[in-house]
Structures are given as structure tokens and as C-alpha cells.
Amino acid sequence: MNKIEIKCNGSCNITLDELNDFQEDLKILTDDRKQVLKDSILKYGFSFPFIIWKDEQSKIWINDGHQRNKVLIEMRSEGYELPNDFPACEIFAKDKKEAAEKILAQSNLIGKFAEDGLQNFITKFDIDIKPMNIEIPGVDIDKFNLKYYEGETEDDEIQ
Questions:
Q1: What's the angle, vertex CA 132, arms to CA 1 and CA 144, rounded to 5?
Q2: Residues spanned by CATH 3.90.1530.10 within the chain?
Q3: Is the dihedral of CA 8, 11, 14, 16 positive or negative?
Q4: Is 3.90.1300.10 the CATH number for 12-107?
Q5: Nearest 5°: CA angle at 89, between 22 and 60?
Q6: What's the pTM?
Q7: pLDDT tens digits for 23-82?
């Protein structure tokens, strides 16, 4: 049996059963991306706290971590050994509307990946990003890997 380890801290701890889905169908988790997330949790443990919001009745809503919650519940049903509770950080909002606005604000990608910056980062830490099966907005990982792993220079354009 695989045991999921906690690899982060939060300002509080919650159980999966305390969490309520706030986003509903805002985002889609395809089977292939679900597997990527599951593989990441198996490799790195639970590494990012849930971001939660408590309403007036102290009901706990997920602001960030819906996909992790879904995958962890599925893993629990498959027999994986999960901790009793998980790290979380609480945000404050005056009502559901403000909490919903914060979901959108948090989901918005503010910084854009720079190819040279990404190349420098993965080179510095000797990371091969292709097997990680990550998606980076604005970066074609297949072309990116071809460009840098085949020795093209930074001046060469990605075709």
C-alpha cells in the first residue's frame, strides 16, 4: 500500500471530509491530467496546502485545491494510506461573492514564463521537464525540449 506523506505546512489542518467544493464545474480535470496529478502526489507527497474560506456558518470551502481534493478522495477509495488531516491556509472574504472573486484572481496567471528564464531555471537545477508532463501556458514543451536538448542556441526560433 502506498502512503501519501505531507510535505508542507499550513496555518491550520483540515480533513478531506470537511472540505466543500466551491468551484463546481469551473475547471475540468481530464483523466490524463488527473493521472499527472496523482503521479505528482505519489512522487512529491502533498506539497501545497489547500486554500480555504469559511463562511458565516464556519462551513469550509475550497478556494484552491479542488483537483487535489478530488484526486486524494479517489486515491483513498483505491486503498492509498492518507493522513487524517491536511495543511490548509485560510483566506478571508466578506461573502461568497468575494470568495468567488478571489478564486478567479488567484487562478489568473500574472507572470508569463520567459523561455530563456525557464531554460536557465531547469539548467541550474538539472531538471528534465518533459517527463514531468507539465503544461505551461504559452510554452510548447515538446518544441521547447527539442530546442534546448538538441543544442540549439537561444537565438534560434522555435518553429
A1: 170
A2: 12-107
A3: negative
A4: no
A5: 35
A6: 0.81
A7: 888 888 999 999 999 999 999 999 999 999 999 999 999 999 999 999 999 999 999 999
